Amino acid sequence: MHSEVWQKSQKLKGDRLKCLSFDIWNTLLDLGKLYSLIAEELSEITERRKEEMEAGLKSAYQKALSLRLEGAFRSPILDSARVFASELNITEEGLFRALVRAVMRAETGEMVFDDVHRALDELNAMNIKMGLLGNVMFWPGMVTRIILEKNGILRYFHSTIFSDESGVQKPDRAAFELLANRLECRLEEMVHVGDSLENDLAGALISGASAILIKRDSPTSFSIGKRAFVVRTLTEIPGLLSKL
């Protein structure tokens, strides 16, 4: 099935691929696992059930995503923290302390999806420059770097850009353009991989890059026009790119 899908697909523009961009949460790292740890710490702090805390985190995440996409956040970390704290009926300080406790736990070194290491090893062997492009919620990009390092994958990437440090965020063209410049390639020579239709797929395409949407629950992998693809696993990407 995999080979048939890509044999029928069209190439990603005429330019040869020079760089590859990745989203982080729910693309490389499992956000649900981190939220589960944060919920455990919140449960201990508040003496409320973990399940209640976990449901609140997921609900707050969806609200914060919508507000951020609408441009309602002037300070992404603080503004999103207010949304999460309000939804959970806790203080922002309590939220931050639960996050710190969660990040310090050994389990944060076990957050990569099963397909990540193999895919990155194969892509690294192809000598393609790779970078990370991440928006932030209530923790800074530096915390995510620590988690990436604990999971053994930070070393694969030539550049890491987070919205709290750069002042630009997906789906804005400026975010993709900044990473392309850091990786010394043009947007037309870059492919972005992520799990969000708006921030990753649409953002990359509108910016002039090509895009791969990772959708692990999709029944099939398929192409969308000339510059966009949907894959069920990251391990499909090296085979796809080798055809360019």
Radius of gyration: 18 Å
- Report the mean per-residue pLDDT as an integer: 93
**Lateral arrangement of strands in the main beta sheet:** 3-2-1-4-5-7-6
Q: How many discrete structural domains?
A: 2
Largest pleated sheet: 7 strands, mixed
The counted number of beta strands is 7
- Taken from the alpha-carbon principal axes, the silhouette is globular
Under CATH, the homologous superfamily of the largest domain reads: HAD superfamily/HAD-like
What percent of residues are in strands? 5-15%
Into which percent range does the helicity of residues fall? 40-55%
Would you give the CATH topology of the largest domain? Rossmann fold
What does this structure look like?
The chain is an alpha/beta fold and 244 residues long. The chain folds into two domains: 160 residues, Rossmann fold (3-Layer(aba) Sandwich), CATH 3.40.50; 79 residues, DNA polymerase, domain 1 (Orthogonal Bundle), CATH 1.10.150. 49% of the residues lie in helices and 13% in strands. The protein is built from eleven helices and seven strands. It has a seven-stranded mixed sheet, with helices on both faces. Strand 6 and strand 7 form a beta hairpin. Helix 3 packs across helix 4 and helix 9 crosses helix 10. The longest helix has 20 residues. The two termini are 19 Å apart. The N terminus is likely disordered. Keywords: Hydrolase, Magnesium, Metal-binding.
